[in-house]
Design brief:
Largest sheet: 5 strands, antiparallel
CATH topology: SH3 type barrels
CATH class: Mainly Beta
Order of helices and strands: HEEEEEH
Structural class: alpha+beta
Strand order of the largest sheet: 4-3-2-1-5
Shape: globular
Number of helices: 2
Helix content: 10-25%
Distance between the termini: 43 Å
Length: 91
Amino acid sequence: MSYLSEQNKCGLKINDMVIVTRKAFKYENGWENLWPSYMDEIVGKVCKITGIYNTGILLEDGKYNRFYFPYFVLKKYDEELIKKQNLEELE
């Protein structure tokens, strides 16, 4: 099981909005990249996928393109679903 084959199965695509859920460890799950500390500022933010490459998924945070993130730290952001969940919690 390689990083690339798992990334290809993850279902994320260009223009999807995602939340960066956590930091990744160096070479975690076969991801052939590092996580420098300056990438930490994106954790918890909603970003747009602008490219998908063998080295990871390129994100834009509204200012400019950032870095290549591994698929396994990204969660698809669905604003309507989140609004619905928040309403249900209030009931």
